[in-house]
Design goal:
The complex is a heterodimer. By secondary structure, chain A is mainly beta. Chain A has one domain: Immunoglobulin-like. Chain A is 0% helix and 47% strand. Chain A contains no helices and 10 strands. In chain A, the strands form 2 sheets. In chain A, strands 1-2-8-6-5 form a 5-stranded mixed sheet, with no helix packed on it. A 4-stranded antiparallel sheet of chain A has the order 3-4-10-9, with no helix packed on it. In chain A, strand 5 and strand 6 form a beta hairpin. Chain A is elongated, with a radius of gyration of 18 Å. Chain B is mainly beta. Helix content of chain B is 13%, strand content 37%. Chain B contains 1 helix and 9 strands, in the order E-H-E-E-E-E-E-E-E-E. Chain B has a domain of 86 residues: Immunoglobulin-like. A 4-stranded mixed sheet of chain B has the order 1-7-5-4, with no helix packed on it. The chains are: A mainly beta, B mainly beta. At the A-B interface, strand 3, strand 4 and strand 7 of A face strand 2, strand 3, strand 6 and strand 7 of B.
Chain lengths: 129, 149
């Protein structure tokens, strides 16, 4: 698959639903790919601490909610990007084994491994003659 | 190579620019408009902060290895260069979405003050790069004593 170039376009959430906390909320950029046994989701979440990240799988909706604490010093002189929370939801079509979901956050990158449930794995059907 | 001049400290427009930024910010907040940042297509986007002793430059670089990032300071010019590599995935995977970018980046930014190049430090934390640049002595605010006659 062709590589994507580096760009800066933080996409603000267009969702009409309001958030109780003030400030911008962004849709993080994600890569999602599927292997034979798993669905893997990788999201760019710069500035998010482990404790401020919430991943939730409800029915077949996976939601990522992340709060960014601003700890910059001094006063702002010049601004090219905004800092805000992250939120994004996906409808997962595969049947996921919820008990085996793993997530890790490292250097601003979230990686969620969603193992497919046994019943959802492709099975070769033998044809009897 | 992207070259950015924040502003010329000797130019009077500089003050005006700051004021205008602040006014824009107030208006944006008031009308809750979506237009929050100046559009910039250069990567990475930079924010610049200052206090009385330092200038801080921040950039969101999630997943960028510190060893792949190079920072150079020359007088009042800051160069940031680097590369974001994404780990290779197996050829057999099926992508549902691929939104995250990778590749090389390079930015040059002119700072509003000369800095003490010896004491510049940088830190990568949670995918956010923060460069602290102590102002050169001549650029620090100075208290002026008023003599009485």
């Amino acid at each position: 698959m062709a590589e994507k170039e580096l760009t800066v376009d933080k996409k603000e959430v267009q969702n009409p639903q309001e958030f109780t906390r003030e400030g911008p909320v962004f849709n993080p950029d994600v890569d999602i790919y599927e292997t034979e046994n798993e669905l893997i989701l990788i999201a760019d979440l710069p500035g998010v601490q482990k404790d401020d990240l919430d991943i939730d799988l409800n029915e077949n909706t996976l939601t990522i909610n992340a709060h960014v604490k601003q700890d910059t010093q001094g006063t702002l002189l010049y601004k090219e990007y905004d800092v805000g929370d992250y939120k994004r939801s996906f409808t997962i079509s595969n049947v996921i084994d919820q008990s085996k979901i793993q997530a890790e956050l490292n250097n601003g990158i979230l990686r969620v491994v969603l193992p497919k449930a046994e019943t959802a794995k492709p099975r070769k059907i033998e044809i009897r003659t | 190579m992207a070259y950015t001049t924040i502003f010329q400290p000797t130019n009077r427009l500089y003050r005006y620019d700051l004021l205008q930024n602040e006014m824009n910010r107030l208006f944006d907040n008031f009308f809750n408009t979506q237009r929050r940042t100046r559009g910039s297509n250069v990567f990475p986007a930079l924010n610049v902060y200052q206090d009385s002793d330092n200038i801080y430059v921040t950039a969101e670089l999630p997943g960028t290895d510190v060893n792949d990032t190079e920072i150079n300071v020359e007088g009042d010019t800051l160069h940031i260069k680097g590369q974001r590599k994404l780990p290779e995935t197996d050829k057999n995977v099926r992508y549902h979405r691929q939104e995250r970018g990778s590749g090389q980046f390079s930015r040059t930014i002119q700072l509003p003050f000369p800095v003490n190049t010896e004491k510049v430090s940088a830190e990568m934390k949670l995918g956010v790069l923060t460069i602290s640049l102590p102002k050169a002595d001549e650029a620090k605010p100075r208290k002026i004593n008023i003599k009485t006659a």
